[in-house]
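Ticket #4471: structure output looks truncated?

Reporter: J.K.
Steps to reproduce: submitted the chain below (658 residues) through the standard prediction queue, then opened the result file.
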Amino acid sequence: MTVAADATAPVAPLRQKVSRPVVLVAILIVWLVLFAALRGRQTLTLAAADLTGLHRWLNDVNDTIGANRNSNPLFLYFFNEIRLVIDNLVTFIQSLISQPTGGRPVPQIGWLGVVGLTGYVSWAVGNWRVALLAVAGFTFLGLQGLWQESMDTLALTLSAVFVALLIGIPLGVWAGLSDRCNRIMTPFLDFMQTMPTFVYLAPLTLFFLIGGASATITTVIYAAPPAIRITAHAIRSVPQTTVEAADSLGTTRSQQLLKVLLPLSKRTVVMGVNQTIMAALAMVTIAALIDAPGLGKTVVQALQSLDVGTAFNAGLAIVIMAIVLDRVTTAAAGRDEAARRSGDRFLTWRRPLLAAGGAVAAVLVYLSHTYVWAAEFPGQGSTGSHIASAADTATTWMQDHLSGVTNAIRDAITNGLLNPFQTLLTDSPWWLVGAALVALGVVLGGWRAGVTAAVCVGLLVGTGLWSDAMTTLASTLVATVLVMVLGAVFGVWMGRSTLADRIVRPTLDAAQVMPPFVYLVPFLALFGATRFTAIVAAVVYAAPVAIKIIADGVRNVPEATVEAATSAGCNTWQIITKVQLPMARSALTLATNQGLIYVLSMVVVGGLVGAGALGYDVVAGFSQGELYGKGLAAGLAIVLLGVMFDRITQAAARRTRA
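Returned output as attached by the reporter:
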């Protein structure tokens, strides 16, 4: 009987499935053991002034293109024509609001006209509160002594946004209507939005030279994906029943698009315009590295000379412009809802007031076109001088009185976390690091992610910048760890408390409006020109998006589950660690993905303030002709790191959701 019973009993599995954390720990232990035995061998180190065969070849390509730019048919009839069209557009808008033209000592529309038009347009598309904010903000730009620089930035932004929307909205509509088009476009859009802003600069200067035109083209390429993606999402979000009702009434394809789909998706499309404007402004400021005029150029020159006061004043102007543009477009998205709430009374008063406001704006434009006093901003920008002086004074005070604290923080993180990790990456043999990255890709994301990691590792070796890439990788991963710590703390707090969410979220939204350059300035004052400055700026830049994602993930944990854990006697810490965070794993993985991408983009920008590695290679490539090929290879290395990070974390997120 016993034997028979044993024969019919289920057979226990011979092998237990090894958990993922155990495999990760095993990979790390093997890596550390081999590192101890092979430290310093086959590290592929390259000195700052040294070039590889690839770098010299890229320099030769650049020289060849320069020599044949005006004779090669591809440049004569394609690249040069595109550059000419964009250059004419930029020059036209600059002649309107920022640069003297046609023998005039001032632009066609002076400061009074620009402020009047800004206020009127803000009121027309938004509301009177936004109009007051816009007028006050633009007036303050003049008081800072940065009127022309601000208008140059605005001209480049408007040029890029116009072209980006001209291309992006039709493509977005097409992707919204066609599943095939959407499938084809999505990988390209994912790739374009993964790449840090720095990466766009070097390749495009190869074809379009440096200056306002190439900066605008770069900005268009960077800013178009949000317009395409959000427009496609808006079209696809229109209820299917509405589309079917339109079909039943006999509407044609074009009527359905113009009378149903676009009107119902207008609010979301306007939000896409908002994201396009914000992306364009961020890119225009960074495009100062390729000689784009405006506020970005002032910030770059100030950062390179460690002039914190000037950088702070110009950075503040960028923030003000970003806030104004963001508020105007956000208000435009919500205007229809405000009109519906106000009813007929809204239309009764608004139309005659808009007509009167338009007349006032026209008078102000005429005055600014005709009279110098209305064209040139009055005063010498003393407010900006006071701001810069105050920033310098504050910097000196912080360096004198807070250096003990700031240096302790910097040294603790640098010596306790960054240096050991960087040593592990840069002093290990390249093949050992590559094998570890591929193994991590397979364990976290599956075999496809492992293949992607293997390809990226091979190409990184090919760039000749393996050591610099590992230095950038170390800074990126350390900053991402800090981002996730902040994200978990504040995200859980916001996810569990509605009051905390209402208090903190507006600050996070405002932080996401600011272009990356702005984050470098205060930390340059606190920590000086070091790689730690770039890491802290990257943490502050990336933390808002990670915090919001984690907060939403914690909030979406079913309330019934939390109540059941509470009734079972769990305390708050146990509920967070045993229930809410485990059930929000997909949100944590997504936050890691976004945090990595944001951190990488900021770490390489930190090349301007002593971060070194790939960011420095890119900047040096623009300033020193013999290093152009090396800068181009550094841009490729940044792309490879971004793609590897993105593929692994996205695959891990999909596996977590499954």
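Triage note (M.O.): checked the attachment and the full token line is present. Residues 1-16 have pLDDT under 50 and may be disordered.
Status: closed, working as intended.
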